[in-house]
Design goal:
Layout: H1 15-19, H2 24-34, E1 39-45, E2 50-56, E3 61-65, E4 71-72, E5 79-81, E6 87-89
Antiparallel strand pairs: 1-2, 2-3, 3-4, 5-6
Length: 97
């Protein structure tokens, strides 16, 4: 069996480096949201676009920060995996499939 690199165990990129990848609109909204406890969790990149994911520890919710600075609290198709590999949709409900 081939060894597969576990992406979740790779050293995380510091927040300041991730911030450099944001649009000016995203940076402005992130600054505002940080006042309310939200934080930049990660930036998922593909060949065609970037998905900026924020996390609110108080409500334990994930959201996507769109390129125009709009916060999408119910992004379609966003799945987050925990350390055990269990998928969770954006609402926090475990996925059955």
């Amino acid at each position: 069996m081939h060894a597969v690199a576990e992406r979740r165990l790779v050293e995380r990129q510091p927040t300041e480096l991730m911030r450099r990848e944001l649009t000016p609109e995203q940076v402005g909204m992130l600054y505002t949201l940080e006042r309310f406890g939200w934080g930049l969790k990660f930036v998922r990149k593909s060949e065609t676009h970037k998905v900026v994911v924020l996390f609110d520890p108080d409500s334990r919710r994930y959201a996507v920060l769109r390129s125009d600075g709009e916060l999408d609290e119910k992004p379609e198709g966003l799945r987050i995996r925990d350390a055990q590999g269990n998928a969770t949709d954006y609402t926090g409900a475990p996925l059955l499939a």
